[in-house]
Amino acid sequence: MVSNVERVDLETILPLRALFLQEANRQIRYNACHERGWTDSYLLKIDDHAVGYGSIKGREIPDRDTVFEFFVVPPFRKQASQLFRQFVAAARPKFIECQSNDPLHSALLFEFAHSIAADTVLLEDHHVTEFAIEGAVMRPKRPDDRIFPHEVEPEGSHVVELNGEVIATGGFMLHYNHPFADLYMEVRPDCRRRGIGSSVIQELKRECYLAGRVPAARTSIQNVASRSTLCKAGLRVCGFMLIGEVKA
Hints:
It is built from six helices and twelve strands. The protein folds into two domains: 3-122, Gcn5-related N-acetyltransferase (GNAT) (Aminopeptidase, 3-Layer(aba) Sandwich), CATH 3.40.630; 130-232, Aminopeptidase, CATH 3.40.630.30. With 248 residues, it is α+β, with helices and mostly antiparallel strands. Strand 8 and strand 9 (165-173) form a beta hairpin. It has helices at residues 10-24, 32-35, 80-91, 103-112, 196-210, 224-232, and strands spanning 3-8, 39-46, 49-57, 66-72, 95-99, 113-125, 136-140, 158-162, 165-173, 180-187, 214-220, 235-246. The longest helix is centred in the first third of the chain and has 15 residues, at 10-24. The protein is elongated and about 70 Å long. It has a twelve-stranded mixed β-sheet with strand order 1-2-3-4-5-12-6-11-10-9-8-7, with helices on both faces.
């Protein structure tokens, strides 16, 4: 078998990427990098047949220094290491980044990288919860709502109102691979540690499904409080974002 790697445009790898997304069936954190023009694409070939692709992105746009997607169709997966070695030689990345719930890519990360660390927790929906905050109502945000200053997250599409005041906001982002959506929320500082955050996530999950989307979430591996809030609302940890330096 003769294998080679060649630089191509994004459109060339899209049929193979469709296979990747179908097999993955999970939220892809950096999905939007392709659409935003932040990636370079490489076609993997064996005996002149397209058998997979690799993609690199910039950790600091517009640099292209990080492998973040790598896919080989199942009949040729035994040649994955050989193809990955050729891909790295062609693209010359400095880093390899992947989701731990991607078995092929994460195995290659541990084979070809060192100084591997995790920085982000990935979560998927697991079960339905039924929290209720007495007197609180979650509803779509209105133009005349007085929103408290936010420290981290955007205001979002929904608010939680209690005693005539907005005490929490939230929403979900849709730039991930369909049908997945990414949940986010923020609670007013004086109203935290009362279960409001989990209640917001619970209701956002419902809105996600009604919109034809599958809820997912992510948080910093250091943010124990956020992870606890998300898990209490019925999500569960499904992976981590891993990053390592390419071995010399």
